Each structure stands twice: as structure tokens, then as C-alpha cells.
Amino acid sequence: MSSELSPIDKAKFVAAKRASTYVKDGMRVGLGSGSTAAWLVRCLGERIRDEGLRITGVPTSTRTAVLARDVGVPIISLDEAKWLDLSIDGADEYDANLNLIKGGGGSLLQEKIVATASDQMIVIADAAKQVESLGAYPLPLEIIPFGWQTTNALIEETLIGLDVLGRNTTLRMNGDVPFITDEGNYIVDLHLNRIGNARQLSLVLNQIPGVVENGLFIDICDVVVIGHGDGKVELRDINNGTVEEDRIFFAESDNLFTDLAD
């Protein structure tokens, strides 16, 4: 039951629950990846079952696709959908301008493609993800496996001339072997501590041969839905310049998410 959820889980639950109300009948919706976005998929499955909501989802990872099928959310590919009404996803960090770092789960490439193919992007997060300056969370780069050490050396050399506090890089691992994305690539995490100019950094990194995409989402997010452990929800709309508050009340029967692992 929701009364058994931790405060952080409650924050994720209420953010996902509130964000799901943006989804209307007939929409084509990008479905994000990661633990918070998974709660959103569950909420949509509940609405399909209980309200007869008719939508089509476009998942941003294999894991999200499996979950969507499990909870009854119809899915198609982005090529089939062509364009989306809305995408909803989580974030590892967001700043006051709703610029993001994403990719902690390794799905940044598909997430960015889907988000930029949407009329609107909504991010769901807990309050701990807000930062004054991006960069405390490691910035993921998706790179091709061929010559990855050379690519990594070029990344480290490029960082010397950029406005960042740290320049350490690490290849993301899955046990004893490199982590492999859904597209068959590697992830290099940049430990930058603080990013002074995120827009410049994003443009420069993507010019390095071997780099496929970076986890900076600049001017892509339209709304962030921030959940709190007491049920309060804050909605920040960067386009309208508005901040609203809402509250999600927990019912003892709200037990859809207790089996959802991070």
C-alpha cells in the first residue's frame, strides 16, 4: 500500500500520478525510461484499464517496452508514430531553466530522439533532482565501441578548454564488461562537478568523432512535475512562466507500485 512507501517513493508516485493527467484520449505518448518513468507507465496502464483511456505509447528503451506491454499500454515504434503529442520522462538533474542531465539508466539516445520528436516534453522528478548548476551528477556520453579509448582521450582533451570543474571520465561497466546500450554502444560518464555553459558543452562534445550523443537536454523540457513525500506536487511551466501546486491524496488501495524496483 502507498502507506508503506518510503518518502522518496511517494514523491515519485505523486509526480507520476499527476503527470499522467496530461495524457488525453488519442494521444501518441513518448514513454521514458528509469524508475520514475516506470511509475508513469503503471499509472497510464491503470487509466487504460479503469477509464478506457485510448493512447499509443512509444517506449525509449527495451525495459520500458516490456513494462508497457505488461500493464496494457499499446506501443508502436517512433517510425510508425512519426511525431508525438507528448513525451514524459524522468531526469537525473534539472536546473531553474529546465535544462536536464539524463542518461543515468543508459537510454539517453532514444530518450532524446523521442523527446525532440514531441510537441511537449514533461519531466517527472523528486525535489532532490533540482540543482543550481548542472554537473554534480555525472554527464553520460553514448559513444561507439570502435576505438573507444581514442574517443575517450579526445573527450578528456576537449574538456581542458571548457568551463567545468572536473574532467575525470569513466567507462560505464556492467560487472566485468562494458555496459551496452540498446543501440549497441558504450557509455562514458563525465565527472564534471559543475557545468558553466551547458549549451556550449553539448555542442562541442557532439563534434568529437565517436560520440553519438550526450545527456544534456537543453531547451527540450517544457514542464517539470516535482513530487514530494507528503503528497504535494509542484508544476513548473517554462513556456508560460508559471508555478502551480497540487496535492495527490493517498488511498490505501494505491498498491500498484510497491513491486516496482528501482
Topology:
Layout: H1 7-19, E1 28-31, H2 35-51, E2 56-59, H3 62-71, H4 78-81, E3 86-89, E4 93-94, E5 100-101, H5 108-116, E6 121-126, E7 139-143, H6 148-159, E8 168-171, E9 173-174, E10 177-178, E11 186-191, H7 198-205, E12 211-214, E13 216-217, E14 223-227, E15 232-237, E16 242-247
Parallel strand pairs: 1-2, 1-3, 3-6, 6-14
Antiparallel strand pairs: 4-5, 5-13, 7-11, 7-12, 8-11, 9-10, 14-15, 15-16
Helix pairs in contact: 1-2, 2-3
Features:
262 residues; alpha/beta; seven-stranded mixed sheet; four-stranded antiparallel sheet; globular
Overview of this protein structure:
The protein is of the alpha/beta class and 262 residues long. Helices cover 28% and strands 24% of the residues. It has a seven-stranded mixed β-sheet, sandwiched between helices. A four-stranded antiparallel β-sheet has the order 8-11-7-12, with helices on one face. Strand 9 and strand 10 (177-178) form a beta hairpin. Helix 1 crosses helix 2 and helix 2 runs parallel beside helix 3.
Task: Describe this structure in a few short sentences.
Helix content is 28%, strand content 24%.
